[in-house]
Amino acid sequence: MNELQFCLASGEHARQIEEIRNATSRELTLLLGPGHWSSPARIASIRERIKCADPERLRKLTLFAAVEGGRAVGSIAVSTFLPGFWKRKYWTEPTSDALGVFNLAVHPIFQRRGIGAFLMQEVEALAMSKNLPYIRLDAYATNPMSNRFYEAIGYQFQGMIDVKGVELNLYERKSGFDLGGATVRGITDNFEKVE
Q: What is the pLDDT of residues 150-171, one digit of tens each?
């Protein structure tokens, strides 16, 4: 594996991120059946997200990429402006600031190599650099792979919510976490593929 780099997504990454999201969507649909993950990514929305990035304050949804050998192999979006359906009462410290994580995706041919954990570690470093004490996210309750992934890297389950008929599991972790000496590869190697 070439060295991974974490960078703010640029226009040159737009098509690659679209491909990552669409390949991930197809794979999840094959594994889990049709769901909200089955919707195709739209290049126009990705380009707009890249154009409107707010890397300094992170108030707007800002897209980052994991790049290997000059190509985006994974992507993640973050923002300090959290969805309204994430009610404050769900969190350990309801009034604390947090960095929200959205749309984590790794191209299926690059999965199980630690790229998702790498992206989450970089988001952790970003949260710490912005003095944000928590990282928060949601995952489809019906996707066991993503739920196992977040739990394996130390995210705490905070409860399940229903958003317009879609069940989401809420997770959070205090920034400044450490993987307890485990290697990123060691964590991802422990996952069992859902058939």
A: 999 999 999 999 999 999 999 9
